UniProtKB/TrEMBL annotation, chain B:
Its main location: membrane. Signal peptide: none annotated. Belongs to the amino acid-polyamine-organocation (APC) superfamily. Spore germination protein (SGP) (TC 2.A.3.9) family. Keywords: Germination, Membrane, Transmembrane, Transmembrane helix, Transport. GO terms for cellular component: membrane. This is GerAB/ArcD/ProY family transporter. It is a multi-pass membrane protein. The chain crosses the membrane at residues 7-26, 46-70, 91-113, 119-141, 153-173, 193-212, 224-248, 278-305, 317-336, 348-370. One of its GO terms (biological process) is spore germination. It comes from the Bacteria.
């Protein structure tokens, strides 16, 4: 086709593209927007939602925490824009912290609202925080840690990669909320002494927080939660022993009648610290030492199972193991009723490696 | 469609289409839009069996389509239809066909435009984008049927690489294989015929080849191409369904509008985020390809309908473009802004695709068989007298 014949088509395209500006009903001029990285949601005194964030993120200006109080999340965003000379945008949200009160109230409607915005990724980290989060953020910024939002994001990303602590994002949380045979969990942080510290795992029934696993039990909770994992440090304070680089493997078997569930936890790793005078010279002594530690770990795991049964939550997704090739023996409601009364048998097997090192040190002592 | 092999018209074809052109054409027609939302319609693991069942039924249809081209006694294309049905019935048939291709083209295009508008460019006017996309379709379709069909290779290669981005979702920790259970149906769920209708519609597309002139295809090549395309389509549906199911779980998957797109939004590479910015535009190649083919089919139908009034030049083509332009504008103004209306149209498209894929291959096969039988009887009667 000769070039002249292209001209009308090119003209038409040019007109449409150039004229496109007049059809645009909202703009994203970079100087006019301010992407938000962190959100903190708390319950107001009158039941409203207090929405806080750091502004301006990613810009070299003086930062501050801005808080709005409203009945809905979107209204809060609208009110925030009335307080600030740029339009805040959600495309860069990386973390959402919920206060304990907010988590007790239920998170699904809040997360659904957030996910309606296609700019917001379902990879956004979620966590529950206890204490004065706004005060913590303000103090961090005043003490020169201006990029506290990015610092926290990197910390979360590190925890996720490491896989030893509880981390969760919007997708993982909602996938568990809608799963009939599992309940969601979120990391539980606490603000104390001007520090934000990982303090365990928040347990949810549906989308409402109903309890938590304290930090002292969290490492054992992780052994039950993941099919396979690695725990770099397993402190057994009652036995004055610290195990290290422990590879964990969990297996679940139900009896045919689904009245009993057997959980086998296999651990393999090293002893990092032992009490003075601990004898592991002979294989028999080492075996006795291992059995003793197994009993300690088993007690911890049983305590965790008891707690989850008492709270009527299944954070381990045990119910999913009841589903077979041919049938689902329980509905969501039936499983929720059955799980708290189910007999759980836990069996721990521990295999200690590199015990020669342990012996040589023991000899010197 | 008129058969004028070697001539310089819009529908002229210099040589029969190759295996790749035919296979990729069929595959892109089948998977274009259904691939995006089929997983959330299926949701239950037992539906894997239903996909295989639909693929098996589709295989039978493909054998019938290939058979129609293999019979030497029956004329193919438009002439074949007229000779078999008579001019009055052909007129109605072409009118219905024009409506079908226009509707399919508009719903596919606006469905895609809606995704772009919702996820990539919420600030852009959806109708304007639809019209721009239609211009791209015209740009391709104006090259004629032969070049447009051969563009299938570009359309396939331009979009198939996207599948590799989903491979990490097939493995833990993203995939929870227990979501695939139970694989056998516990009971007959209500309303499953509607799901089967959607799956069946998701295999439609090869029936459009029935309008090709016989000279444009080699029957044997067509058969192997369509069988390969059908098998690959079934693989694609199962692959994406399994990935979505193991990632979301059945209950959560049902709540997703476009699970395939949402899945890609979950990928976070150290050097790139928001991969949907690349994936969704890549799909435009397939959309432009399929709509361009449908535009040519509409032009062909107009040409055949108004044979005495319109010359065989470009007038039917531009008329088809104007009709599509007007319909795009109307759909963008009155249908797509209302989510429920848009969903209704998508459901109607499923009905339309399921109907055309059920009726056309069987109907053409039956007509061909009747024609051959008649000829055989005439020949037999002549021989005996």
């Amino acid at each position: 086709m000769p070039a002249a014949r292209h001209k009308p088509l090119l003209l038409l395209l040019a007109l449409l593209v150039l004229g496109g500006c007049s059809f645009v009903d909202k703009t994203n001029t970079i100087e006019e927007i301010s992407p938000v990285v962190l959100l903190y949601l708390d319950e107001g005194n009158d039941g409203s939602v207090k929405l806080s964030t750091i502004i301006p993120p990613l810009k070299k200006e003086k930062k501050s925490v801005i808080t709005t109080s409203s009945n809905t999340l979107i209204e809060g965003r609208y009110l925030r824009n009335l307080k600030y000379y740029r339009e805040t945008k959600g495309g860069q949200i990386r973390m959402i912290f919920f206060s304990e009160a907010m988590a007790n109230r239920g998170l699904t409607s809040l997360l659904d609202t957030l996910l309606r915005d296609p700019e917001i990724s379902s990879r956004v980290f979620l966590s529950v925080v206890r204490g004065d989060m706004i005060g913590y953020l303000n103090r961090q910024m005043q003490s020169g840690q201006e990029e506290i939002d990015l610092y926290l994001y990197k910390m979360f990303a590190h925890y996720e990669k490491q896989g030893q602590l509880t981390t969760s994002n919007v997708h993982e949380f909602l996938a568990r909320v809608y799963n009939p045979y599992a309940d969601p969990v979120l990391p539980y942080y606490a603000v104390a002494n001007n520090e934000l510290r990982y303090s365990g795992t928040a347990l949810f029934r549906g989308d409402k927080m109903v309890g938590k696993i304290p930090l002292s039990d969290d490492v054992f909770f992780q052994m039950l939660r993941e099919k396979r994992g690695v725990q770099k440090t397993v402190p057994l304070s009652e036995a004055d022993v610290v195990l290290g680089s422990i590879k964990t493997e969990r297996q679940i078997h139900f009896t045919d009648s689904f009245r009993n569930v057997h959980i086998d936890v296999m651990l393999k790793g090293r002893v990092e610290e032992v009490p003075a005078g601990q004898k592991t010279d002979s294989p028999r002594e080492l075996q006795e030492f291992e059995r003793k530690l197994e009993r300690r770990i088993q007690e911890k795991l049983e305590k965790i199972i008891d707690r989850t049964q008492a709270l009527r939550v299944d954070p381990f997704g045990l119910g999913m193991h009841t589903v077979g090739w041919k049938e689902r023996p329980f509905t969501r409601e039936q499983w929720n009723q059955r799980w708290p009364d189910m007999d759980v048998t836990i069996h721990v097997s521990l295999k200690l490696e590199h015990t020669g090192m342990l012996d040589s040190h023991a000899d010197r002592r | 469609m008129a058969s004028r092999v070697g001539s310089a018209g819009l529908f002229s074809i210099s040589a029969p289409f190759g295996f790749l052109s035919l296979a990729f054409w069929a595959n892109r027609m089948q998977t274009l839009y259904y691939l995006l939302y089929l997983p959330s319609v299926l949701a239950e693991p037992v539906m894997i069996g239903l996909i295989l069942l639909a693929a098996g039924c589709s295989h039978l249809n493909i054998l019938m389509i290939a058979r129609c081209f293999a019979w030497k006694e029956t004329p193919g294309g438009y002439l074949g239809i007229v000779r078999t049905l008579g001019s009055a019935v052909s007129f109605l048939f072409l009118l219905a066909g024009l409506f079908a291709v226009l509707m399919k083209g508009i719903v596919l295009m606006m469905g895609y435009v809606d995704i772009v508008h919702h996820i990539l460019f919420p600030a852009l006017h959806a109708t304007l984008f639809g019209i721009l996309l239609l211009c791209a379709c015209v740009y391709l379709a104006r090259l004629g049927m032969e070049k447009t069909v051969r563009f299938a290779i570009v359309a396939f290669v331009g979009t198939i690489w996207v599948t590799f981005l989903y491979v990490p979702f097939a493995f833990p920790p993203a995939a929870e294989y227990r979501h695939l259970l139970p694989l056998l149906p516990e009971h007959m769920p209500k309303g499953d015929w509607q799901t089967f209708l959607t799956i069946w519609a998701a295999f439609s597309g090869p029936e459009y080849m029935l309008a090709l002139p016989k000279e444009a295809v080699d029957a044997k090549k067509l058969k192997t191409a369509l069988i390969s395309a059908n098998a690959f389509t079934a693989f694609e549906y199962i692959f994406f369904f399994v990935i979505c199911l193991t990632f979301y779980g059945s209950d959560y998957l049902q709540r997703q509008d476009l699970p395939i797109v949402d899945l890609i939004r979950y990928i976070q590479l150290p050097f790139a985020e928001r991969l949907e910015m690349i994936l969704i535009p890549a799909y435009a190649i397939s959309v432009v390809y399929v709509v361009a083919i449908l535009l040519l089919y509409a032009a062909g139908a107009i040409q055949c309908l108004a044979r005495s009034r319109l010359s065989e030049g470009r007038a039917p083509f531009w008329l088809a473009f104007l009709m599509m332009l007007l319909l795009t504008w109307m759909a963008g103004r009155w249908i797509w802004p209302d989510e429920w209306k848009a969903k209704e149209w998508i459901t109607w498209l499923s009905w339309l695709d399921a109907s055309t894929y059920t009726v056309l291959p069987f109907g053409f096969f039956l007509l061909g068989w009747i024609t051959i039988r008649r000829k055989w009887r005439v020949r037999h009667a002549g021989g005996s007298s």
